[in-house]
Integrase catalytic domain-containing protein (Neolewinella maritima), 132 residues
Amino acid sequence: MPGFVDFYNHRRPHYSLDRRYPSEVYSASAVAYCERVKPPEYDETVSVRRVLKGGAVRWGHDEWIMVSRGLRDKWVGIKQISELVYEVYYRQVCLGFLELGEQIESGRYYRLMSDRDFPQRSRDRVARSRKD
């Protein structure tokens, strides 16, 4: 295997590199590689909740917001942007919106609304801006 790696990187020109060798164009990354990903950090205006094994976050006593099974055991932030509207974040990414109202019933699961689903009247980009 070491012979193949040497041949591939130092003796065989690559078409995608304009017939240059990989060893000629390689440069080490300026960003240090870290073995562990840092846990997400949310500011104090955000309520932090854990996504449970089924992919949902508890909302209230027995209501649930379906987030994603891919985020199970991760921590998401829920930020209130108006009296009845909340945003759900994973790190700095807005996953969707939750609009409270009469449709919230005890013991039910609710899905997040995307930008497309969310009414234009309730969207306020300035109110949703987040400090990085």
